[in-house]
Amino acid sequence: MDSLMVEYRHPIDSRDDGLFLDAEWIPRLSATGRAHEVAVRRLHELMLRAARHQVARMPDAAGLGAARRDEIVHSAADAATVSVLSRLSAFEGRSRFTTWAYKFAILHAGVEVRRAAWRDREIDLSDVPEQRDSDMSSPETYAEVRELAEAVREGIAEALTAHQRRVTIALLVDEVPIDVLAERLNTSRGALYKTLHDSRQRLRAFLSERGFMSARGPKEVNP
Amino acid sequence: MTGHVSLSREAVARLTANTEPWLSCDDCFDQVDAAVEALLGSTVPLAEGFRAHLLGCAACHEEAQSLAALVAEHHDLTAADAVARLDAAVGA
Predict the structure, then answer these.
(1) Distance in Å, alpha carbon of B49 to nearest chain A alpha carbon
(2) Among all residues of chain A, which has the CA nearest to that of B73?
(3) According to the lineage, what is the superkingdom (chain B) (predicted)?
(4) pLDDT tens across A145-192, in order?
(5) Residue in chain B lying closest to A56 (CA)
(6) How far apart are alpha carbons A210 and A87 in whole angstroms?
């Protein structure tokens, strides 16, 4: 009798992640009328799930309060839905559609949380690094790391431009989130990362000339 | 520009990280979905540029971790295992 049974599936029934089969997303989102509306609603639900997931993972979100976190989740899901819909033609099927779409919600939620968490915090764009005593396992380790740190400080002062110094210290020493610094400096994550990349190259060259770098990295930090 | 900043051991490691070969944040974003799925679904290592970028960009790394955790169940992994696999591949 089993062979005579036919599974009934409504055209917009939930499957796969509680949503559509992966291959159904693009045609449904590209359709018109009711099918499109249903697909967009499902996409928004997917984006809400991913945004909620991202916000829940971020320690910085804990101090924002439940109401602000919820605002961010919905704002990020809205923005991600628009991003996905405007980029459907860019989806090449190299991953599941859902994985591809999730990354937009994760990005929007991540950026919003970082900016919200730092909204009332001043950023001191220092360009003068200072040696700090750190926990070291032995006097030898302490001396080695201190020597390297001093060389890095010299490298920052001598090998980097003023802009590279400020960006690099803010991002890598003070640990200001890159999206926050990008907003304050009216630039982009990508532009700041390029500055960071160039700074690291210059620092590594500076340290290499002084015998501090092995082929894999700084000798004293990663022996 | 007025204050002094400190160089901890961790900061020195971040400052001297080797982020070659170059990959931009935009290219990282383009690749992250396929890269994470490939990593979780096989033993294929991350492309070197992608790996180096995640090592050098805390925000992109955090978002890749989040994506790995979110899709972990598709690969019969827990979220923690998926993130651990990504971090091991990055060398973080």
Answers:
(1) 12
(2) A17
(3) Bacteria
(4) 788 999 999 999 999 999 999 999 999 999 999 999 999 999 999 999
(5) B66
(6) 48
**Which residues make Cβ contacts (< 8 Å) with residue A17, sequence separation at least 6?**
A46, A98
What pLDDT digit, counting tens, does each position of B3-56 carry?
Answer: 444 588 899 999 999 999 999 999 999 999 999 999 999 988 999 999 999 999
State the Cα–Cα distance between residues A47 and A62, nearest whole angstrom: 20
Q: What is the per-residue pLDDT across A16-46, written as a single tens digit (0 to 9) for each?
A: 445 589 999 999 999 999 999 999 999 999 9
Q: What is the DSSP letter of A12?
A: T
The domain over range A8-117 is classified in CATH as 1.10.3470: no
Taking the CA atoms of chain B, what radius of gyration do you get in angstroms?
Answer: 15
Q: Which helix (H) or strand (E) holds B63?
A: helix B58-71
What is A139-209's CATH topology?
Arc Repressor Mutant, subunit A (1.10.10)
Domain with CATH 1.10.1740 in chain A: 8-117
Give contacts of B 42-71 with A, CB under 8 A. 56-59, 62-63, 65-67, 69-71
- B15 at the A interface (CB within 8 A)? yes
Q: Are A152 and A203 in contact (CB under 8 A)?
A: yes
**Cα dihedral sign, A97-A103-A104-A109:** positive
Distance from CA of A38 to the nearest CA of B (A): 23
d(CA A178, CA A108): 14
In this structure, the number of other CB atoms found within 10 A of the CB of residue A126 comes to: 18
SS3 A124: coil
Share of chain A above pLDDT 90, in %: 73
Amino acid at B32: V
